[in-house]
């Protein structure tokens, strides 16, 4: 750090943020926009950014009922990877991963993307066969994927329990070295600032309460801050997607479940990769602050509470301690939940609807953070042109009647 940056840091630390310029404006909603995006999470903000940047549509409002990034974007455990099994998902997530690789430069905002690798453990021969199949499929799609033997896993992550007699012994793992983590809030803030710079209005504390639909076409949205006229509405509301769809008389094939995570007290660097176990429903990485970031599978009941039950934490921690005995005396500091929108095939929905001008981007379930840039990019295309591009086409609602499902329960990596 140079002497100038130390001085600047000290000055800013003692200024209590006074006179700092706002990173984005807080405008009053206008009576009409060319397009309205409902939901100010990473996906909604990214959609608005790419609408402005790639399609020249800048007369856009992002309407957020709370604060931007306050939904799943700010609640997730930030794992980024693209090692999905089927071609359609592999292409979509790899598109996102490529965008992640240039995102800090693209937004001129450090999203702290850290390609520290993501390992998915196998605990028995059946799992090993399934995971090796995924490695081969990934490679055929040009995605980096490696199979590690038990010995290579323990060399890569020496604090893992190598005892072959435990309940879930490690028999091997997949490794995607280009996978890793990113700073979730920074992704929302970076897209917000960049979209605002291109003229997008970001309107917080503005809940959408209904749609005005005439002759099968959307005319605008009813909100807690009045009616806003528009011919294009993109809904990106994660766990509340079904609630919004119902306002337009549409029933989506989604269930909303709590998904929880927790962090430990901060410690010195102890694990420099991401380790996930599908079989025991637990995964761990270490944040830049030093906290262990630990997550679980979904809570099995449907609910809109951003909390989750203690039994899931108990099971997850017992699995983590068995996999990493070194963590057995760590104290846990905070726990929270988000509401994830899960589709029957564990894949996203990026789709037109029976209402003209009304589009939905949802169903990312437990795994949409990694998709944020790619999701925004392809959804902006759909909203702007009223046609999906080739990456988004397999994820339309039609698949639930045609049967062309994209069954990604295995690659979703977190049970749902
Ligand atoms: P959100 O960030 O939830 O944004 C939707 C926004 O819509 C919210 O801000 C909400 O307030 C707003 N909204 C809802 N209703 C209305 C309304 N009526 N009017 C206006 N606004 C409205 N994914 C990964 O890839 N890797 C992970 O490691 C990972 N870990 C996770 C861990 C947990 C604990 C959770 C909960 C999720 C995890 N996910 C992970 C999933 C990921 O967080 C989500 O798929 C992703 O963040 C969804 O982004 P979004 O922008 O669509 O949703
Ligand atoms: O999709 O990789 C993932 C993930 C990890 C934790 C939650 N989701």
Ordered list of secondary-structure elements with their pairings:
Blueprint: H1 3-14, E1 35-38, H2 42-55, E2 60-63, E3 79-80, H3 87-101, H4 103-107, E4 118-122, H5 125-140, E5 146-149, H6 150-156, E6 172-176, E7 180-181, H7 184-197, E8 201-203, E9 208-214, E10 217-223, E11 226-229, E12 233-235, H8 241-247, E13 255-266, E14 274-277, E15 282-286, E16 291-298, H9 310-323, E17 332-342, E18 349-352, E19 358-362, H10 372-385, H11 399-402, H12 409-412
Parallel strand pairs: 1-2, 1-12, 2-8, 4-14, 12-19
Antiparallel strand pairs: 3-7, 4-6, 5-6, 9-10, 10-11, 13-16, 13-17, 14-15, 15-16, 18-19
The protein binds flavin-adenine dinucleotide and pyrrole-2-carboxylate.
